[in-house]
Amino acid sequence: MQLQVPRRGLRALLWRASGGRISVGASARELSERVHLDRIRTPLTGWHTITVASSKGGVGKTTTSALLGLTLAEHRGDRVVTLDANPDAGNLAQRLLGYRAPATVRQLLEQENLDQLASFTEVSRFVNTAGRLQVLASDLDPAMSEAFNAAEYRRVLALLTRFFNIVITDSGTGLIHSAMTGALETTRSLIVTGKPTIDAAEGITTTLDWLIAHGFDELVRDAIVVLTCDRQAHSIDPAALREHFADRCRAVVEFPADPHLTEGGRIDLEMLRPRTRQAGRELAALVAEAFTWDFPAPDGFTTGGR
């Protein structure tokens, strides 16, 4: 079998220095990265919605939303936006921007002509930019965030899917608040987050059971479980936990402990450990697999994006 030419690291340096005469081939890590990047760049016709959810707080929803959005935006040429639908004044914008967002979803909803916004320039006044990723922030007043209901969520999402190809919703804590209902009814890919601890693992199970009981069994079957491994219970077997959720959902991805994420500040992909970036690419590749699936457009939504 012909060896793949290395593109980075000492292997690539040796290959270039020898004029290609000496090559031990690309490393397993580099080959894995190439596979992930090819899948991340899967062509997408129209738009795709992704909801990050859990019945518990503090289990990595916002971190997962941010890492997924940054990774997709870094490696794709289309438009990616993250939407903070947290009813408890979410901090997605702070994790992506490093400061309080000047524009929020509430300001967008206050536009009388919201449904008639006709250009990306008009819409871009209400989103914030984190590199190539766009962010639609929640209001920092919890009372205003709580007022973000299912009908308003659908209005915002219908607008976003006209101008963005990929919309990632950070749903915040809980499953029964109104905006979450709107997210679940319109999502195409579901990500459920947790940790390898007893209470967080039970939280994942509770989330999946609740979704099935409320008619979202197809979403559960195709869901991706993300385990944020900054804490781990000694009494839990990680392999058994992965196998358990892999039997219920499409895939399980583990985010390893990473000092940069633990700081709680603005997330910079370049500051992450290689294993963390690899996990982010793995998640993005799994999400992109669904870009070729056939999804019906919900009522009030167009099938294509710009």
Give a nutshell description of this structure.
The chain has 306 residues and is an alpha/beta fold. 43% of the residues lie in helices and 13% in strands.
How would you portray this structure in words?
The protein is built from 14 helices and eight strands. The protein has 306 residues and is of the alpha/beta class. It has an eight-stranded mixed beta sheet, sandwiched between helices. Helix 12 (238-248) links the parallel strand 7 (224-229) and strand 8. It is globular and about 55 Å long. The mean pLDDT is 85.
Mind telling me the CATH class of the largest domain? Answer: Alpha Beta
CATH superfamily of the largest domain: P-loop containing nucleotide triphosphate hydrolases
**Separation of the first and last Cα atoms:** 42 Å
Q: What's the CATH topology label of the largest domain?
A: Rossmann fold
SSE map:
Layout: H1 9-17, H2 28-40, E1 48-53, H3 61-75, E2 80-84, H4 92-97, H5 105-109, H6 120-124, E3 128-130, E4 133-136, H7 142-146, H8 150-163, E5 166-170, H9 178-186, E6 189-194, H10 198-213, H11 217-221, E7 224-229, H12 238-248, E8 251-256, H13 259-262, H14 274-289
Parallel strand pairs: 1-5, 1-6, 2-4, 2-5, 6-7, 7-8
Antiparallel strand pairs: 3-4
